[in-house]
Amino acid sequence: MKSIDELPDLMVELIENTTAEDDHIEFPGRAREIIKEISDFAQSTKIYSRNRDRSKTFWENDATPTDIYYFMIRKVVDAPTQIHRDAAVLLHMPALAEAIIKQERGEIEDG
After folding, report:
1. How far, in Å, CA of 82 to CA of 89, rounded?
2. pLDDT given for residue 111 in this prediction
3. Which one, of 61, 44, 50, 73, lies nearest residue 98 by Cα?
4. Dist. CA 31–CA 39, nearest whole Å
5. Which candidate, 68, 109, 14, 43, places its Cα nearest to that of 6?
6. What span, in angstroms and rounded, lies between the C-alpha atoms of 57 and 51?
7. Are 100 and 35 in contact (CB under 8 A)?
8. For residue 48, what are the CA distances in angstroms to 4, 41, 83, 93, 109?
9. Does the N terminus or the C terminus of the chain have fewer Cβ atoms within 10 A?
10. 3-state secondary structure the chain
11. Residues 6 or more apart in contact with residue 110 via CB below 8 angstroms
12. CA 74 to chain CA mean position, Å
């Protein structure tokens, strides 16, 4: 991801590449690539660097990838403007990427 302009298309692609079963989200191949791509970009932004500690504190209680994904998507859907949608993604995508890694290590369980 080279610019914020790519974010809406990547989010649509992410949604299309996730699967939901019984209140549990799966993030297969391409979905994980998108999450990493957006997360890496997010961590290079001013909005994330200025709010990193707050975001980490918000998600420190071992939230599952499903919890974070649904929360982020609700923020995106309810956002009044594109800037608010972008901010929601940039502030929460790194937590989603980290939660997926924790889940793979067996540190948290997701549904």
Report:
1. 11
2. 62
3. 61
4. 12
5. 14
6. 10
7. yes
8. 13, 10, 14, 10, 26
9. C
10. CCCHHHHHHHHHHHHHCCEEECCEEECCHHHHHHHHHHHHHHCCCHHHHHHHHHHHHHCCCCCCHHHHHHHHHHHHHHCCCHHHHHHHHHHHHHHHHHHHHHHHHCCCCCC
11. 24, 25, 64, 65, 66, 99, 103
12. 12
Calculate the dihedral angle through the C-alpha atoms of 92, 13, 98, 88, rounding to the nearest 10 degrees.
0
pTM comes to: 0.92
- Spans of all domains in the chain: 4-105
How far apart CA 2 and CA 7 sit, in angstroms, is 10
Which of 6-10, 36-40, 44-48, 59-63 shows the lowest mean pLDDT across its residues? 59-63
Residue-wise pLDDT tens digits, 54-103:
988 888 777 899 999 999 999 999 999 999 999 999 999 999 999 999 99
Say how many Å lie between the first and final Cα of the chain, rounded.
30
Please give the residue that has the higher pLDDT: either 38 or 111.
38
